[in-house]
Sequence to fold (154 residues):
Amino acid sequence: MDDGAGVREDTGHPAGPARRNVIAGAGAAGVGALGVIALAGCGAGGGTKPEPSVPARLKGKVIAKTSDVPVGGGTILTDDKIVVTQPAKGDFKAFTAVCTHQGCTVGDVQKGVIQCPCHGSEFSAKDGSVKQGPASRPLAEFTVKVVGDGITVS
Fold:
């Protein structure tokens, strides 16, 4: 019991919540945190393409030249986390360069495939869909506009 001076009479220790109440509260908080983490890992929409957000500084600005993007390949803008592809002659696409598996930046685009160097995930250069896991969600696609030889995203 507390003697009114903030000291428990039975132990001589400072008064405060009982140890079992602190442990129970910590356990409940931990379970709550795990629930939040679990929910955060489950993206809304499952297999649907996430809506990308183009950094404001890039909107309407030329991010690449058409001559920089080979047919069947692509160019990775690592600083901007965007990959620009040309799956067919004159058909330009842009996706986030962040792998949906664990957030690595994709590393190569060849023969119509965007490859992640971290765990081997592969994505279609045509539509960003998963061609090989462990990634289970497609790359988010940006809207591309070609003006002259300049490629912009929005």
Observations:
- The longest helix spans residues 19-41.
- The first strand starts at residue 62 and ends at 65.
- The chain has a mean pLDDT of 77.
- The radius of gyration is 26 Å.
